[in-house]
Structure formats: C-alpha cells, structure tokens
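JOB MANIFEST
job_type = single_chain_structure
chain_count = 1
residues = 274
[input]
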Amino acid sequence: MVHAKRSPSRSGRTVGAALLVVLLAGTARADEVVPLDENTALMVGRHQLKLGVLAFEYGITQHVSVGMAAPAWLAGAFSPLFAPNLHLEVGLLDRAPVAVSALLGGYYVRLKDNGETGQLLAIPASLYGSVNVAPRLWLHGELNYNWVRAIGDVAVNTSQVDGTAATRNGQVGLAADYHLTRVVALTARGRYQVWSSPLVLKGTSTIDAFTDAELGAELRPDRHPWMAVAGVAFTWKHVGLMAGGGYGHYFVPGGNVAVRSAGFVPDGSLWVTF
C-alpha cells in the first residue's frame, strides 16, 4: 500500500484558507449584517459607546447621540493647534427601510506660533438620509452647510494686523455599502462642494501713534472641490475596520474643509463599540 505524503506548505495553505472562509464568509442573513453608521443617518444605539480613530460617539437614547472628533482634541498635545469640538446627532425618522437624522457640530480652533495667534470657529450642520434598498445594500445621502469665521493677529513687515475672515459653503455627499457577507462590505462615497460664499477679509493696523489703517478684501472662489473614494469594510459585532482610497480634494473630517490641491485621497477608519 502506498501512502501519499501531504507537504507541510500545502497543508498550511489549506488551514489558512479554511480560517479565512470562517472569518469572512459566514453566510449572512439580512438581519445579521452590521450596517455602517459613520456619516450616515444610522445611529450608534442607546447607551452604546463607540471609540474610533476619527470620532468618539455615545448614544444617549436610541435616537440621540453626542460625540467629538478625537484627533482635533489630541492635536494640542503634539502641536500648536488646539481644537476642542462637540457634535449632536438626532434621529428624525427610523422606519425601515428609511432613516433620517440631523447633525449639528461646533469647532473652536486655536493656533499660536512664533508670536502670531489665530482663532477659528466652525459650525457644520448636516442632514443625512439612509435607505436599505436591498437586504445587503445601503445607500446614503448628505446635505451639508458650513459656517466658518477666523480671527487672527499677524505681523506684516513688523506691523501688527488684527483681522477677521468669514465664509460659508454648501456640500453634498453620497455613499453606498454593499455587504458581501456578514463581515465584509464594499464601500464607495463621494463629496462635492456645490457653492461657497466669497471669503471676506477685514483688518486693522496701527502704523504709528497717529495713524491707523483699515484693510479689506473679498475673494471669490473659482473652484468646486470634490472627491470620490472606494474601499472595503470589515464589521464585527464590536469592532470595525475600513480602508480605501480615491482621487480628488481631501475634506478634513468633521469640519469639512477641503484642501486646495487635488490628489490621492486616503479613506479609512477603525472603531470599537461597548
């Protein structure tokens, strides 16, 4: 009798593949899918605490949650930038397969560097809508409004200029997540700045004991920042991970401020819930 020997490498690959199937494939029923709630109308849930690299969120009730953008708070420990912030999200409608929520946030940014100081107040407001169009497919939409006002002291040619700047803009966002299995989902999202008000600059400067100067300018934006990204998400009951990328203008999470130049846009998140 001849006994065939199975190579260790082949056996290892077989075991690895089996573990991967168990981890990712688990055939999912619709009610087992864990939908994504970041930047959607889906709420974190009553008395649920979500700690993520982009935001912390706590569900006061099933339809009311509070949270903050954690990186902005922590930036003050490593840089001259300090940005305390807070947001409130309220569920307005939750009747399967449709959900609607509203979010209002506030960001106070303080920057002090080389004797120059600056302060910025940003108030973003968003209306989210989510639809479960198929057992494993969710579509999400967002209407967003941002109000920004900045105050600063800047030295220009050794003269101190005290100035303010203010602007407003409106953006729309679209997203989709399709759940291949109970754990794995494909994601896609895009964002487009529809309009922006002129950036109004005002400033005053004391040139000498007898002379004060007033400065004023109005800058009209000639561009509409946008982005489109795709990725993959892994969602277990208490842990989630999302990674992807795309092209366009990077929008700073929370404040929704777009960088000036277009290029590669990273997209990712990691969170745990309790």
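[summary]
The chain is about 10% helix and 60% strand.
The helical segments are 8-24, 70-74.
exit_status = 0
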